Amino acid sequence: MSAIAAHDPSVERLARSLSEHEVRDFDAVFVLGSGLGSFAERLSDARAIPYAALDGMPQSRVAGHAGRLVLGELAGRRVLVQQGRVHLYEGWSPREVTRAVRAFCRSGAKLVVLTNAAGGLRREWPAGTLMRIRDHVSLQGRAPLATHERGAARVWDEALGAALELGARDAGVALEAGVYAALLGPSYETPAEIRWLAGAGADAVGMSTALEAVAARASGARVCGISLITNQAAGISPTPLAHEEVVAAGAAAAERFSAVLERALPHLCAAR
């Protein structure tokens, strides 16, 4: 059996710190990707908690990740928003990358909505396209689960995915659906890698999300998610890629992205 057996002390410590900050009794958790943090501005009666105030909360050093939790009300529901995540390419381990979602689940989360900024592999999807994540392919070479944990073959919840589509319909925003490929990073993929990923069935590519989805599902939560296509991938885009482009595209799409999540929330809670 794994050395991490019945419990992970770091997750327990963070869950205890969340409780001390009265982070509890929420209906949904939203994890926000690069440049997407403005969604938290829609919350009313909001209270922000810097990661530095939470015992054991990993802190990202990547631009576009604010590094705080926001707890508040939205569409008549109490929600927890994670503004910023950590990544394997920063040197964090799979257990550290998934510590926050595990602690949220330990604190009562049953519904986790994961979001990210991603490169697009479909020429007909311009920058700014929103994609519901139907499934993922993890090529990060690392697994977040201990040997005693049972991972689910179907991680992404179809009923919750349908709820996201209802939210997009209500908001009048187009929402595509596709497969997200997670790579290690931090470098962007080569044109040859992009052609290979597209041939394997991927529609978008990024450097996060997959491990969190697996860990949240194994921790008992239901999972859905949206990728914002911030750029067309190498070999498709006519211009070189840059992280600043990702953050700028997130800002440009913030209103449509946030409207979909807000309108989807009642449908998500009803499907839960």
Characterize the structure shown.
With 272 residues, this protein is α/β, with parallel strands linked by helices. 31% of the residues lie in helices and 24% in strands. Helix 1 crosses helix 3 and helix 4 packs across helix 8. It contains eight helices and nine strands. Helix 4 links the parallel strand 6 and strand 7. It has a domain of 187 residues: Rossmann fold (3-Layer(aba) Sandwich), CATH 3.40.50. The N terminus is likely disordered. 49% of the residues are buried.
Shape: globular
Low-pLDDT windows of residues: 1-6
Order of helices and strands: HEEEEHHEEHEHEHEHH
Q: Tell me, what is the CATH class of the domain at 9-115 and 126-135 and 142-179 and 215-227 and 253-271?
A: Alpha Beta
Q: Give the CATH H-level superfamily of the domain at 9-115 and 126-135 and 142-179 and 215-227 and 253-271.
A: Nucleoside phosphorylase domain
Which CATH architecture of the domain at 9-115 and 126-135 and 142-179 and 215-227 and 253-271 is right? Answer: 3-Layer(aba) Sandwich
The CATH topology annotation of the domain at 9-115 and 126-135 and 142-179 and 215-227 and 253-271 reads as Rossmann fold
Query: How would you characterize the largest beta sheet?
Result: 5 strands, mixed, barrel
Structural class: alpha/beta
Count of distinct strands: 9
Strand order of the largest sheet: 5-8-7-6-9
- Overall mean pLDDT score? 90
Q: Please give the alpha-carbon distance between the first and last residues.
A: 33 Å
Rg: 17 Å
Proportion of residues in helical segments: 25-40%
Share in β-strands: 15-25%
Q: How many individual helices?
A: 8
